[in-house]
């Protein structure tokens, strides 16, 4: 499987459709009852392909005036894996639909939170493919 094909498929526009920008606000509204309480915005980024695995990250970017480090982001993979608004299972199903049956998404996992900088953390999403 070549990355150039997937790189063309997972454009910034498609990634925003797969994981809409308002999902962060909806997540924090459900969690705290107020979207303004959220310390970061969440977006989906395509990282590439390695053997039979598509690699993405959920990028957490600190909101102005908030503290991402104070937000316990290291426990988020467990929370994100089952939270209905984040909906990783649905996200993977939508990615599977984009692949149009040529290749199938058969499993997925969220990795541990990584600190990219003081204001950016990332949670890897690995999707296992089968042809």
Structure overview:
With 131 residues, the chain is α+β, with helices and mostly antiparallel strands. The protein has one domain (3-130). Helix content is 32%, strand content 33%. The protein has helices spanning 3-9, 12-18, 23-32, 76-82, 88-98; strands spanning 40-50, 53-62, 104-110, 114-117, 120-130. A hairpin with a 2-residue loop joins β1 (40-50) and β2 (53-62). The longest helix is centred in the last third of the chain and has 11 residues, at 88-98.
Q: Quick one: overall form? A: elongated
Total number of beta strands? 5
In total, the number of domains comes to 1
Q: Which structural class best describes the helix and strand composition?
A: alpha+beta
- Indicate the mean pLDDT: 94
Q: What keywords describe this structure?
A:
elongated; 131 residues; 5-stranded antiparallel beta sheet; alpha+beta; single chain; 33% strand; 5 helices
